Amino acid sequence: MNSITNLIREVVSRARQATQSLYFGFFQGHTYLTPNELHQLSQLVGITDDTVVADFERQFAQLIGTGEAIAYAAARMGFYEIMRLQGITKEDEVILLGATCAVMVNAVMRTGATPIYADIDPDTFGSSSQAIAACITPRTRIIVAQHSFGIPCDIEPIVSLAKEKEIFLIEDCALTLGSKANGIAVGNFGDAALFSTDHSKPLSTLTGGLIYTKNTELANRLRSAQVNCPHLSIKRQNKLWQRLLLEARYCVPARLGRLGLIDLFFSITKKITHAEGDFLADDFGTTIQSTYPYPAKLPAFLAAIGLIEVKRWTKTSLERANTLKRLIEIINQSSSRCYLPAAYKNKKLEIIPLRFAWSEPKGAEIRLRIKSFIHVSWTLFMTPIIATKSPLQNLGYEKGSCPISESIGPRMVNIPCIFNTRDSDILISKLILSII
Ligand SMILES: Cc1ncc(COP(=O)(O)O)c(C=O)c1O
Question: Is CATH 3.40.640.10 the classification given to domain 35-227?
Answer without folding.
Answer: yes
